[in-house]
Protein backbone atom coordinates (compact mmCIF):
# COMPACT_ATOMS: atom_id res chain seq x y z
CA UNK A 1 0.00 0.00 0.00
CA UNK A 2 1.32 3.39 -0.86
CA UNK A 3 1.90 6.02 1.75
CA UNK A 4 -0.29 9.05 1.69
CA UNK A 5 -1.50 11.82 3.91
CA UNK A 6 -4.64 10.95 5.72
CA UNK A 7 -7.56 13.09 4.79
CA UNK A 8 -9.81 13.96 7.68
CA UNK A 9 -13.05 12.19 7.07
CA UNK A 10 -16.32 13.88 7.87
CA UNK A 11 -18.44 12.76 10.79
CA UNK A 12 -20.75 9.92 9.88
CA UNK A 13 -24.34 10.89 9.35
CA UNK A 14 -25.59 7.62 10.62
CA UNK A 15 -24.70 4.12 11.32
CA UNK A 16 -27.75 2.12 12.21
CA UNK A 17 -28.19 -1.50 11.16
CA UNK A 18 -28.95 -1.71 7.49
CA UNK A 19 -32.27 -3.23 6.72
CA UNK A 20 -32.88 -5.17 3.53
CA UNK A 21 -33.38 -2.05 1.47
CA UNK A 22 -29.99 -0.69 2.35
CA UNK A 23 -28.08 -3.91 2.50
CA UNK A 24 -26.12 -3.63 -0.64
CA UNK A 25 -22.44 -3.81 0.10
CA UNK A 26 -20.32 -6.88 0.49
CA UNK A 27 -19.29 -6.21 4.07
CA UNK A 28 -22.54 -4.65 5.10
CA UNK A 29 -23.97 -6.57 8.00
CA UNK A 30 -27.29 -8.03 7.05
CA UNK A 31 -29.53 -8.50 10.01
CA UNK A 32 -31.77 -11.48 10.16
CA UNK A 33 -35.10 -10.49 11.66
CA UNK A 34 -34.31 -12.48 14.81
CA UNK A 35 -31.22 -10.41 15.46
CA UNK A 36 -33.24 -7.33 16.07
CA UNK A 37 -36.27 -8.84 17.73
CA UNK A 38 -36.80 -7.21 21.08
CA UNK A 39 -37.23 -10.55 22.79
CA UNK A 40 -33.65 -11.67 22.27
CA UNK A 41 -32.04 -11.89 25.70
CA UNK A 42 -28.53 -10.64 26.30
CA UNK A 43 -26.07 -13.40 27.04
CA UNK A 44 -23.59 -12.08 29.54
CA UNK A 45 -21.40 -15.11 29.53
CA UNK A 46 -17.96 -13.54 29.33
CA UNK A 47 -17.77 -11.94 32.73
CA UNK A 48 -19.29 -13.35 35.87
CA UNK A 49 -21.79 -11.09 37.43
CA UNK A 50 -23.11 -11.38 40.93
CA UNK A 51 -24.40 -7.87 41.19
CA UNK A 52 -27.70 -6.39 40.18
CA UNK A 53 -27.17 -6.17 36.45
CA UNK A 54 -28.98 -5.85 33.23
CA UNK A 55 -29.48 -9.53 32.69
CA UNK A 56 -31.71 -10.08 35.69
CA UNK A 57 -33.82 -7.10 34.78
CA UNK A 58 -33.89 -8.12 31.17
CA UNK A 59 -35.03 -11.59 32.16
CA UNK A 60 -37.81 -10.17 34.27
CA UNK A 61 -39.08 -8.33 31.25
CA UNK A 62 -38.70 -11.35 29.03
CA UNK A 63 -40.37 -13.78 31.36
CA UNK A 64 -43.48 -11.66 31.63
CA UNK A 65 -43.94 -10.00 28.26
CA UNK A 66 -47.33 -8.65 29.23
CA UNK A 67 -45.78 -6.73 32.11
CA UNK A 68 -45.15 -3.21 30.85
CA UNK A 69 -42.50 -1.11 32.50
CA UNK A 70 -43.16 2.59 32.43
CA UNK A 71 -40.52 3.80 34.88
CA UNK A 72 -39.38 7.05 33.33
CA UNK A 73 -36.03 8.40 34.41
CA UNK A 74 -35.41 11.99 33.45
CA UNK A 75 -32.05 12.27 35.21
CA UNK A 76 -30.03 9.91 33.06
CA UNK A 77 -28.79 11.15 29.72
CA UNK A 78 -30.69 9.16 27.09
CA UNK A 79 -27.86 8.73 24.60
CA UNK A 80 -25.53 7.32 27.27
CA UNK A 81 -28.10 4.81 28.50
CA UNK A 82 -28.80 3.72 24.93
CA UNK A 83 -25.08 3.56 24.11
CA UNK A 84 -24.31 1.41 27.14
CA UNK A 85 -27.07 -1.06 26.32
CA UNK A 86 -26.16 -1.09 22.64
CA UNK A 87 -22.53 -1.84 23.56
CA UNK A 88 -23.67 -4.73 25.75
CA UNK A 89 -25.75 -6.12 22.90
CA UNK A 90 -22.83 -5.87 20.50
CA UNK A 91 -20.39 -7.56 22.86
CA UNK A 92 -22.68 -10.24 24.25
CA UNK A 93 -25.81 -10.38 22.11
CA UNK A 94 -24.36 -10.62 18.61
CA UNK A 95 -25.73 -7.24 17.46
CA UNK A 96 -23.76 -5.33 14.86
CA UNK A 97 -21.94 -2.12 15.60
CA UNK A 98 -22.92 -0.42 12.38
CA UNK A 99 -26.34 0.83 13.02
CA UNK A 100 -28.10 2.04 9.94
CA UNK A 101 -31.82 2.00 9.85
CA UNK A 102 -33.99 3.11 7.02
CA UNK A 103 -36.68 3.87 9.58
CA UNK A 104 -34.59 6.77 10.84
CA UNK A 105 -36.53 7.96 13.86
CA UNK A 106 -37.99 4.53 14.61
CA UNK A 107 -34.54 3.27 15.48
CA UNK A 108 -34.58 5.44 18.60
CA UNK A 109 -37.76 3.69 19.79
CA UNK A 110 -36.19 0.28 19.24
CA UNK A 111 -33.12 1.25 21.20
CA UNK A 112 -35.22 2.67 24.04
CA UNK A 113 -37.10 -0.64 24.14
CA UNK A 114 -33.82 -2.40 24.78
CA UNK A 115 -32.93 0.08 27.52
CA UNK A 116 -36.26 -0.52 29.20
CA UNK A 117 -35.95 -4.29 29.09
CA UNK A 118 -32.29 -4.31 30.11
CA UNK A 119 -32.06 -1.54 32.69
CA UNK A 120 -35.66 -1.47 33.88
CA UNK A 121 -36.37 2.17 33.05
CA UNK A 122 -36.93 4.46 30.12
CA UNK A 123 -35.41 7.86 29.56
CA UNK A 124 -36.98 10.62 27.50
CA UNK A 125 -37.22 9.80 23.79
CA UNK A 126 -34.13 10.20 21.65
CA UNK A 127 -33.98 13.17 19.29
CA UNK A 128 -31.78 13.42 16.17
CA UNK A 129 -28.87 14.80 18.14
CA UNK A 130 -29.07 11.90 20.61
CA UNK A 131 -29.06 9.41 17.74
CA UNK A 132 -25.95 11.02 16.29
CA UNK A 133 -24.28 10.91 19.70
CA UNK A 134 -25.15 7.23 20.11
CA UNK A 135 -23.62 6.57 16.69
CA UNK A 136 -20.44 8.41 17.59
CA UNK A 137 -20.10 6.93 21.05
CA UNK A 138 -20.91 3.35 20.12
CA UNK A 139 -18.68 3.33 17.02
CA UNK A 140 -15.82 5.10 18.77
CA UNK A 141 -16.00 3.07 21.96
CA UNK A 142 -15.87 -0.16 20.00
CA UNK A 143 -12.99 0.98 17.79
CA UNK A 144 -10.97 2.20 20.75
CA UNK A 145 -11.85 -0.72 23.04
CA UNK A 146 -8.33 -2.07 23.52
CA UNK A 147 -6.92 1.40 24.16
CA UNK A 148 -9.71 2.31 26.59
CA UNK A 149 -9.44 -1.00 28.46
CA UNK A 150 -5.72 -0.47 28.83
CA UNK A 151 -6.34 2.91 30.46
CA UNK A 152 -9.18 1.63 32.63
CA UNK A 153 -7.07 -1.36 33.75
CA UNK A 154 -4.14 0.92 34.55
CA UNK A 155 -6.26 3.23 36.68
CA UNK A 156 -8.09 0.48 38.61
CA UNK A 157 -6.83 -0.44 42.08
CA UNK A 158 -5.55 -3.73 40.79
CA UNK A 159 -5.66 -6.06 37.80
CA UNK A 160 -8.25 -8.24 39.54
CA UNK A 161 -10.70 -5.37 39.85
CA UNK A 162 -10.57 -4.80 36.12
CA UNK A 163 -10.73 -8.51 35.22
CA UNK A 164 -13.78 -9.14 37.39
CA UNK A 165 -15.60 -5.92 36.56
CA UNK A 166 -19.26 -6.43 35.76
CA UNK A 167 -20.06 -5.92 32.09
CA UNK A 168 -22.41 -2.93 32.33
CA UNK A 169 -20.05 -1.08 34.66
CA UNK A 170 -17.22 -1.63 32.21
CA UNK A 171 -19.31 -0.28 29.31
CA UNK A 172 -20.15 2.84 31.30
CA UNK A 173 -16.48 3.37 32.09
CA UNK A 174 -15.49 2.83 28.46
CA UNK A 175 -18.03 5.47 27.42
CA UNK A 176 -16.69 7.94 29.99
CA UNK A 177 -13.07 7.29 29.01
CA UNK A 178 -13.88 7.65 25.32
CA UNK A 179 -15.72 10.92 25.88
CA UNK A 180 -12.89 12.38 27.94
CA UNK A 181 -9.86 11.10 26.04
CA UNK A 182 -11.02 10.87 22.44
CA UNK A 183 -13.93 13.32 22.20
CA UNK A 184 -12.31 15.82 24.57
CA UNK A 185 -15.65 16.56 26.16
CA UNK A 186 -15.81 18.72 29.32
CA UNK A 187 -14.53 16.18 31.85
CA UNK A 188 -16.60 17.00 34.90
CA UNK A 189 -19.89 16.88 33.00
CA UNK A 190 -18.84 13.49 31.63
CA UNK A 191 -18.01 12.25 35.13
CA UNK A 192 -21.35 13.45 36.53
CA UNK A 193 -23.41 11.95 33.76
CA UNK A 194 -21.73 8.56 33.83
CA UNK A 195 -21.83 8.39 37.63
CA UNK A 196 -25.58 9.07 37.44
CA UNK A 197 -26.02 6.32 34.87
CA UNK A 198 -24.07 3.79 36.95
CA UNK A 199 -26.06 4.68 40.08
CA UNK A 200 -29.44 4.37 38.40
CA UNK A 201 -28.66 1.40 36.16
CA UNK A 202 -26.66 -0.56 38.74
CA UNK A 203 -26.44 0.74 42.33
CA UNK A 204 -24.91 3.66 44.28
CA UNK A 205 -21.63 1.77 44.89
CA UNK A 206 -21.15 1.40 41.13
CA UNK A 207 -21.54 5.16 40.80
CA UNK A 208 -18.74 5.59 43.35
CA UNK A 209 -16.45 3.30 41.34
CA UNK A 210 -17.13 5.27 38.15
CA UNK A 211 -16.56 8.51 40.00
CA UNK A 212 -13.21 7.36 41.44
CA UNK A 213 -11.77 5.98 38.22
CA UNK A 214 -13.00 8.77 35.94
CA UNK A 215 -11.62 11.41 38.31
CA UNK A 216 -8.24 9.68 38.24
CA UNK A 217 -8.41 9.79 34.45
CA UNK A 218 -9.21 13.51 34.45
CA UNK A 219 -6.18 14.13 36.64
CA UNK A 220 -3.70 12.13 34.57
CA UNK A 221 -5.06 13.66 31.39
CA UNK A 222 -4.68 17.17 32.80
CA UNK A 223 -1.10 16.31 33.77
CA UNK A 224 -0.44 14.90 30.34
CA UNK A 225 0.52 11.58 31.86
CA UNK A 226 -1.90 9.04 30.45
CA UNK A 227 -0.45 5.60 31.29
CA UNK A 228 0.20 4.45 27.73
CA UNK A 229 2.79 1.91 26.52
CA UNK A 230 5.99 3.12 24.87
CA UNK A 231 6.98 2.02 21.41
CA UNK A 232 10.15 0.20 22.35
CA UNK A 233 11.72 -3.26 22.66
CA UNK A 234 11.70 -6.09 20.14
CA UNK A 235 9.19 -6.44 17.33
CA UNK A 236 6.73 -8.34 19.53
CA UNK A 237 6.81 -5.67 22.23
CA UNK A 238 6.40 -2.94 19.64
CA UNK A 239 3.46 -4.75 18.04
CA UNK A 240 1.80 -5.03 21.45
CA UNK A 241 2.37 -1.35 22.13
CA UNK A 242 1.00 -0.34 18.72
CA UNK A 243 -1.98 -2.64 19.18
CA UNK A 244 -2.85 -0.74 22.34
CA UNK A 245 -2.01 2.74 21.07
CA UNK A 246 -4.08 2.28 17.89
CA UNK A 247 -6.54 -0.22 19.33
CA UNK A 248 -6.25 -3.22 17.03
CA UNK A 249 -5.58 -6.92 17.68
CA UNK A 250 -1.86 -7.71 17.99
CA UNK A 251 -1.99 -10.25 15.15
CA UNK A 252 -3.24 -7.60 12.72
CA UNK A 253 -0.46 -5.22 13.70
CA UNK A 254 2.15 -7.95 13.21
CA UNK A 255 0.70 -8.95 9.87
CA UNK A 256 0.54 -5.39 8.51
CA UNK A 257 3.99 -4.54 9.83
CA UNK A 258 5.27 -7.57 7.95
CA UNK A 259 3.53 -6.67 4.69
CA UNK A 260 3.55 -2.87 4.55
CA UNK A 261 5.95 -1.74 7.28
CA UNK A 262 5.31 -0.07 10.60
CA UNK A 263 4.66 3.44 9.35
CA UNK A 264 2.02 2.40 6.84
CA UNK A 265 0.47 0.01 9.33
CA UNK A 266 0.02 3.00 11.64
CA UNK A 267 -1.61 5.03 8.87
CA UNK A 268 -3.94 2.15 8.10
CA UNK A 269 -4.94 1.85 11.76
CA UNK A 270 -5.57 5.60 11.88
CA UNK A 271 -7.83 5.25 8.84
CA UNK A 272 -9.67 2.33 10.46
CA UNK A 273 -10.22 4.45 13.56
CA UNK A 274 -11.60 7.44 11.70
CA UNK A 275 -15.30 7.98 11.04
CA UNK A 276 -16.51 6.08 7.97
CA UNK A 277 -17.76 7.84 4.87
CA UNK A 278 -20.32 6.52 2.42
CA UNK A 279 -21.18 6.66 -1.27
CA UNK A 280 -24.52 6.51 -3.02
CA UNK A 281 -25.07 4.86 -6.40
CA UNK A 282 -27.79 6.37 -8.58
CA UNK A 283 -30.01 3.58 -9.84
CA UNK A 284 -30.12 3.85 -13.64
CA UNK A 285 -32.65 1.01 -13.81
CA UNK A 286 -35.15 3.33 -12.13
CA UNK A 287 -34.31 6.08 -14.59
CA UNK A 288 -32.24 8.00 -12.06
CA UNK A 289 -29.06 9.62 -13.35
CA UNK A 290 -26.32 10.93 -11.14
CA UNK A 291 -27.44 14.47 -12.01
CA UNK A 292 -30.93 13.63 -10.74
CA UNK A 293 -29.44 12.28 -7.54
CA UNK A 294 -27.32 15.40 -7.13
CA UNK A 295 -30.45 17.57 -7.53
CA UNK A 296 -32.23 15.54 -4.87
CA UNK A 297 -29.26 15.85 -2.53
CA UNK A 298 -29.13 19.59 -3.12
CA UNK A 299 -32.79 19.96 -2.27
CA UNK A 300 -32.25 17.88 0.87
CA UNK A 301 -29.24 20.09 1.70
CA UNK A 302 -26.99 17.03 1.92
CA UNK A 303 -23.34 17.96 1.23
CA UNK A 304 -21.80 15.69 -1.38
CA UNK A 305 -19.19 15.31 -4.14
CA UNK A 306 -19.45 13.35 -7.34
CA UNK A 307 -17.15 10.34 -7.55
CA UNK A 308 -13.98 10.86 -9.53
CA UNK A 309 -13.96 7.23 -10.60
CA UNK A 310 -17.52 6.11 -11.26
CA UNK A 311 -20.22 7.87 -13.29
CA UNK A 312 -23.12 6.67 -11.12
CA UNK A 313 -21.63 7.41 -7.71
CA UNK A 314 -21.82 10.36 -5.31
CA UNK A 315 -19.87 10.69 -2.09
CA UNK A 316 -21.99 11.91 0.76
CA UNK A 317 -20.25 13.84 3.48
CA UNK A 318 -22.89 14.31 6.14
CA UNK A 319 -26.64 13.96 6.27
CA UNK A 320 -27.31 10.46 4.98
CA UNK A 321 -30.03 10.38 7.62
CA UNK A 322 -31.87 12.95 5.48
CA UNK A 323 -31.50 10.73 2.42
CA UNK A 324 -33.01 7.86 4.36
CA UNK A 325 -35.83 10.00 5.72
CA UNK A 326 -36.66 11.26 2.24
CA UNK A 327 -37.16 7.63 1.19
CA UNK A 328 -34.60 7.60 -1.64
CA UNK A 329 -33.26 4.24 -0.55
CA UNK A 330 -36.65 2.71 0.23
CA UNK A 331 -37.87 3.71 -3.21
CA UNK A 332 -34.82 2.08 -4.80
CA UNK A 333 -33.72 5.35 -6.42
CA UNK A 334 -30.21 4.90 -5.08
CA UNK A 335 -28.25 2.54 -2.88
CA UNK A 336 -25.46 2.88 -0.35
CA UNK A 337 -22.45 1.31 -2.03
CA UNK A 338 -18.77 1.94 -1.57
CA UNK A 339 -16.83 3.03 -4.63
CA UNK A 340 -14.37 0.20 -4.03
CA UNK A 341 -17.22 -2.26 -4.72
CA UNK A 342 -18.37 -0.22 -7.72
CA UNK A 343 -14.87 -0.46 -9.18
CA UNK A 344 -14.98 -4.26 -8.89
CA UNK A 345 -18.06 -4.11 -11.14
CA UNK A 346 -16.05 -1.94 -13.55
CA UNK A 347 -13.47 -4.74 -13.62
CA UNK A 348 -16.28 -7.17 -14.55
CA UNK A 349 -17.41 -4.64 -17.21
CA UNK A 350 -20.98 -5.92 -17.69
CA UNK A 351 -22.35 -5.29 -21.19
CA UNK A 352 -26.03 -5.40 -22.29
CA UNK A 353 -26.96 -8.86 -23.50
CA UNK A 354 -24.36 -10.72 -21.43
CA UNK A 355 -25.03 -13.71 -19.18
CA UNK A 356 -23.02 -13.29 -15.98
CA UNK A 357 -22.68 -15.83 -13.20
CA UNK A 358 -22.25 -14.17 -9.79
CA UNK A 359 -20.96 -16.97 -7.58
CA UNK A 360 -21.16 -15.48 -4.08
CA UNK A 361 -23.78 -12.88 -4.73
CA UNK A 362 -25.69 -12.03 -1.58
CA UNK A 363 -26.73 -9.54 -0.33
CA UNK A 364 -26.33 -8.34 -3.89
CA UNK A 365 -24.40 -5.09 -3.98
CA UNK A 366 -22.45 -6.10 -7.05
CA UNK A 367 -25.26 -8.21 -8.58
CA UNK A 368 -27.59 -5.23 -8.59
CA UNK A 369 -25.04 -2.81 -10.00
CA UNK A 370 -24.09 -5.31 -12.71
CA UNK A 371 -27.79 -5.86 -13.43
CA UNK A 372 -28.38 -2.12 -13.86
CA UNK A 373 -25.46 -1.96 -16.31
CA UNK A 374 -27.12 -4.64 -18.48
CA UNK A 375 -29.79 -2.03 -19.39
CA UNK A 376 -32.54 -4.65 -19.37
CA UNK A 377 -30.76 -7.09 -21.69
CA UNK A 378 -28.99 -10.23 -20.43
CA UNK A 379 -28.97 -11.96 -17.06
CA UNK A 380 -27.09 -12.09 -13.80
CA UNK A 381 -27.37 -15.53 -12.20
CA UNK A 382 -26.89 -14.90 -8.50
CA UNK A 383 -25.72 -17.92 -6.49
CA UNK A 384 -25.34 -17.92 -2.71
CA UNK A 385 -25.35 -20.43 0.10
CA UNK A 386 -27.23 -18.11 2.45
CA UNK A 387 -30.97 -18.25 1.87
CA UNK A 388 -31.82 -15.21 3.99
CA UNK A 389 -29.28 -12.99 2.27
CA UNK A 390 -30.42 -14.27 -1.10
CA UNK A 391 -34.01 -13.36 -0.24
CA UNK A 392 -32.84 -9.83 0.52
CA UNK A 393 -31.09 -9.74 -2.85
CA UNK A 394 -34.32 -10.81 -4.56
CA UNK A 395 -36.41 -8.19 -2.77
CA UNK A 396 -33.90 -5.45 -3.51
CA UNK A 397 -33.73 -6.46 -7.19
CA UNK A 398 -37.51 -5.99 -7.38
CA UNK A 399 -37.32 -2.67 -5.61
CA UNK A 400 -34.58 -1.43 -7.92
CA UNK A 401 -36.45 -2.73 -10.99
CA UNK A 402 -33.72 -5.10 -12.13
CA UNK A 403 -35.54 -8.32 -11.17
CA UNK A 404 -36.12 -9.02 -14.87
CA UNK A 405 -32.40 -9.55 -15.38
CA UNK A 406 -31.56 -11.28 -12.09
CA UNK A 407 -32.25 -14.86 -11.12
CA UNK A 408 -31.24 -16.40 -7.82
CA UNK A 409 -29.87 -19.86 -7.09
CA UNK A 410 -29.64 -21.05 -3.52
CA UNK A 411 -26.72 -23.47 -3.41
CA UNK A 412 -23.29 -24.26 -2.10
CA UNK A 413 -21.17 -23.21 -5.04
CA UNK A 414 -18.92 -26.25 -4.65
CA UNK A 415 -21.67 -28.86 -5.01
CA UNK A 416 -23.57 -26.79 -7.54
CA UNK A 417 -20.45 -26.62 -9.74
CA UNK A 418 -20.00 -30.40 -9.57
CA UNK A 419 -23.51 -31.03 -10.84
CA UNK A 420 -24.11 -28.20 -13.27
CA UNK A 421 -23.03 -28.04 -16.90
CA UNK A 422 -23.63 -24.24 -16.94
CA UNK A 423 -21.03 -22.17 -18.84
CA UNK A 424 -20.66 -18.44 -19.22
CA UNK A 425 -18.23 -15.96 -20.73
CA UNK A 426 -18.21 -13.95 -17.49
CA UNK A 427 -18.07 -15.29 -13.96
CA UNK A 428 -17.62 -13.21 -10.83
CA UNK A 429 -16.41 -14.75 -7.58
CA UNK A 430 -16.69 -12.13 -4.85
CA UNK A 431 -15.31 -14.45 -2.23
CA UNK A 432 -16.01 -14.58 1.49
CA UNK A 433 -13.01 -12.91 3.10
CA UNK A 434 -11.64 -11.36 6.27
CA UNK A 435 -13.07 -7.93 5.39
CA UNK A 436 -9.78 -6.32 6.45
CA UNK A 437 -10.39 -3.61 3.82
CA UNK A 438 -13.58 -2.38 5.47
CA UNK A 439 -12.58 -1.98 9.11
CA UNK A 440 -13.42 1.71 9.10
CA UNK A 441 -17.07 0.89 8.30
CA UNK A 442 -17.30 -2.26 10.40
CA UNK A 443 -16.22 -0.99 13.80
CA UNK A 444 -16.56 -4.36 15.55
CA UNK A 445 -15.07 -6.57 12.84
CA UNK A 446 -11.48 -6.23 14.05
CA UNK A 447 -12.44 -7.82 17.38
CA UNK A 448 -14.36 -10.67 15.77
CA UNK A 449 -11.64 -11.77 13.38
CA UNK A 450 -8.99 -14.21 14.57
CA UNK A 451 -5.70 -15.17 12.96
CA UNK A 452 -7.00 -18.77 12.65
CA UNK A 453 -9.84 -17.47 10.45
CA UNK A 454 -7.33 -16.48 7.80
CA UNK A 455 -6.26 -20.08 7.12
CA UNK A 456 -9.85 -21.28 6.92
CA UNK A 457 -10.79 -18.43 4.63
CA UNK A 458 -7.86 -19.10 2.31
CA UNK A 459 -8.88 -22.76 1.97
CA UNK A 460 -12.46 -21.75 1.25
CA UNK A 461 -11.32 -19.16 -1.29
CA UNK A 462 -9.26 -21.83 -3.11
CA UNK A 463 -12.20 -24.23 -3.16
CA UNK A 464 -14.59 -21.56 -4.41
CA UNK A 465 -12.11 -20.43 -7.08
CA UNK A 466 -11.85 -24.01 -8.36
CA UNK A 467 -15.65 -24.32 -8.37
CA UNK A 468 -16.23 -20.95 -10.08
CA UNK A 469 -13.66 -21.73 -12.77
CA UNK A 470 -15.75 -24.69 -13.99
CA UNK A 471 -18.41 -22.24 -15.22
CA UNK A 472 -16.02 -20.25 -17.42
CA UNK A 473 -16.33 -21.02 -21.13
CA UNK A 474 -13.29 -21.11 -23.45
CA UNK A 475 -11.99 -17.58 -23.86
CA UNK A 476 -14.24 -16.43 -21.01
CA UNK A 477 -13.16 -14.51 -17.94
CA UNK A 478 -13.26 -15.27 -14.22
CA UNK A 479 -13.13 -12.23 -11.97
CA UNK A 480 -11.90 -12.97 -8.45
CA UNK A 481 -12.54 -10.24 -5.90
CA UNK A 482 -12.42 -9.60 -2.15
CA UNK A 483 -12.88 -6.68 0.20
CA UNK A 484 -9.60 -7.55 1.86
CA UNK A 485 -6.25 -5.82 1.70
CA UNK A 486 -4.42 -8.97 2.70
CA UNK A 487 -2.08 -10.35 0.01
CA UNK A 488 -2.65 -13.89 1.25
CA UNK A 489 -6.33 -13.58 0.34
CA UNK A 490 -5.62 -11.69 -2.86
CA UNK A 491 -2.44 -12.07 -4.97
CA UNK A 492 -1.46 -15.33 -3.27
CA UNK A 493 -4.83 -16.94 -4.00
CA UNK A 494 -4.58 -15.95 -7.66
CA UNK A 495 -1.02 -17.25 -7.87
CA UNK A 496 -1.99 -20.59 -6.31
CA UNK A 497 -5.00 -20.81 -8.65
CA UNK A 498 -2.84 -20.28 -11.72
CA UNK A 499 -0.55 -23.09 -10.60
CA UNK A 500 -3.56 -25.41 -10.29
CA UNK A 501 -5.13 -24.08 -13.50
CA UNK A 502 -2.50 -23.30 -16.12
CA UNK A 503 -5.33 -22.94 -18.67
CA UNK A 504 -6.01 -19.48 -17.15
CA UNK A 505 -3.88 -16.34 -17.53
CA UNK A 506 -4.04 -12.86 -16.01
CA UNK A 507 -5.86 -10.22 -18.06
CA UNK A 508 -4.56 -6.84 -16.75
CA UNK A 509 -7.35 -4.52 -15.58
CA UNK A 510 -5.88 -1.33 -17.13
CA UNK A 511 -8.79 -0.96 -19.55
CA UNK A 512 -11.39 -1.07 -16.81
CA UNK A 513 -10.26 1.10 -13.88
CA UNK A 514 -8.11 4.25 -13.51
CA UNK A 515 -4.37 3.48 -13.59
CA UNK A 516 -4.02 4.58 -9.98
CA UNK A 517 -5.85 1.41 -8.96
CA UNK A 518 -3.81 -1.00 -11.10
CA UNK A 519 -1.04 -3.01 -9.44
CA UNK A 520 2.21 -4.03 -11.09
CA UNK A 521 0.76 -7.50 -11.69
CA UNK A 522 -2.30 -6.07 -13.45
CA UNK A 523 -4.77 -6.45 -10.58
CA UNK A 524 -7.26 -3.91 -9.23
CA UNK A 525 -6.46 -2.76 -5.71
CA UNK A 526 -8.03 0.06 -3.72
CA UNK A 527 -5.97 1.19 -0.77
CA UNK A 528 -8.04 2.83 2.02
CA UNK A 529 -5.25 5.22 3.01
CA UNK A 530 -4.27 6.20 -0.51
CA UNK A 531 -7.70 6.31 -2.14
CA UNK A 532 -9.93 7.23 0.83
CA UNK A 533 -12.36 4.43 0.03
CA UNK A 534 -12.64 0.87 1.34
CA UNK A 535 -9.93 -1.64 0.52
CA UNK A 536 -10.75 -4.11 -2.25
CA UNK A 537 -9.04 -6.38 -4.76
CA UNK A 538 -9.97 -7.92 -8.13
CA UNK A 539 -8.20 -10.00 -10.75
CA UNK A 540 -9.35 -10.89 -14.28
CA UNK A 541 -8.40 -14.44 -15.24
CA UNK A 542 -9.03 -15.52 -18.82
CA UNK A 543 -9.48 -19.17 -19.84
CA UNK A 544 -7.56 -20.20 -22.95
CA UNK A 545 -9.59 -20.87 -26.11
C1 LIG B 1 -18.30 -11.17 0.34
S1 LIG B 1 -19.89 -11.81 0.45
C2 LIG B 1 -20.54 -11.45 -1.13
C3 LIG B 1 -21.00 -10.02 -1.25
C4 LIG B 1 -21.76 -9.75 -2.52
N1 LIG B 1 -21.03 -10.13 -3.70
C5 LIG B 1 -22.11 -8.29 -2.62
O1 LIG B 1 -21.50 -7.53 -3.36
O2 LIG B 1 -23.05 -7.88 -1.92
C6 LIG B 1 -19.60 -13.52 0.29
C7 LIG B 1 -20.83 -14.36 0.13
O3 LIG B 1 -20.39 -15.70 -0.11
C8 LIG B 1 -21.40 -16.57 0.34
N2 LIG B 1 -20.83 -17.92 0.44
C9 LIG B 1 -19.95 -18.38 1.34
N3 LIG B 1 -19.68 -19.67 1.09
C10 LIG B 1 -20.38 -20.02 -0.01
C11 LIG B 1 -20.51 -21.23 -0.74
N4 LIG B 1 -19.85 -22.34 -0.39
N5 LIG B 1 -21.33 -21.23 -1.83
C12 LIG B 1 -22.01 -20.12 -2.17
N6 LIG B 1 -21.93 -18.95 -1.49
C13 LIG B 1 -21.12 -18.90 -0.43
C14 LIG B 1 -21.82 -15.93 1.65
O4 LIG B 1 -23.11 -16.36 2.00
C15 LIG B 1 -21.75 -14.44 1.33
O5 LIG B 1 -23.02 -13.96 1.00
From TrEMBL:
| Classification via CDD domains | AdoMet_MTases (cd02440)
For the region Disordered, what residue ranges are annotated?
31-57
A biological process (GO) annotation for this entry?
RNA methylation
Task: Report the active site residues.
Answer: 483
One of its Pfam families is RsmF-B_ferredox
Q: What is its main location?
A: cytoplasm
Write down the SUPFAM superfamilies for this protein, in alphabetical order. Answer: NusB-like, S-adenosyl-L-methionine-dependent methyltransferases
Q: Could you tell me where this protein is found in the cell?
A: Cytoplasm
Instruction: Enumerate the PROSITE patterns for this protein.
Output: SAM_MT_RSMB_NOP
Where is S-adenosyl-L-methionine annotated to bind? Answer: 360-366, 384, 412, 430
Q: Which residues form the SAM-dependent MTase RsmB/NOP-type domain?
A: 268-544
Q: Spell out the molecular function terms from Gene Ontology.
A: RNA binding; RNA methyltransferase activity
Q: Which UniProt keywords apply?
A: Cytoplasm, Methyltransferase, RNA-binding, rRNA processing, S-adenosyl-L-methionine, Transferase
GO CC annotations on file = cytoplasm
Q: Which family does it belong to?
A: Belongs to the class I-like SAM-binding methyltransferase superfamily. RsmB/NOP family.
What's the name of the protein? SAM-dependent MTase RsmB/NOP-type domain-containing protein
Amino acid sequence: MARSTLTKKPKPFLTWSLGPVLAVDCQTPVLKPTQETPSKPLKLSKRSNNHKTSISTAKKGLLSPSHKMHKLNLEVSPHRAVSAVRLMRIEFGGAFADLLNEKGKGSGDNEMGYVERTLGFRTRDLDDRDLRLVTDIVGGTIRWRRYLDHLIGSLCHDECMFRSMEPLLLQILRIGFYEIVKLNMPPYAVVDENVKLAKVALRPGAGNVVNGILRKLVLVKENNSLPLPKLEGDSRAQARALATLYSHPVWMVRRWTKYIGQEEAIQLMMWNNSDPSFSLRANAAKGITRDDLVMRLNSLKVPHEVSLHLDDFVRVKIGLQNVIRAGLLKEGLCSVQDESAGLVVSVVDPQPGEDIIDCCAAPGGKTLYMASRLRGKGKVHAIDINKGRLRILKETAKLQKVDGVVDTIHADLRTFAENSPTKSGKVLLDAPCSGLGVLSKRADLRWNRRLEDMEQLKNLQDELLDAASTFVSSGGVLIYSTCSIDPEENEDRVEAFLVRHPEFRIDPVNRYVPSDFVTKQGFYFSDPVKHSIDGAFAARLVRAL
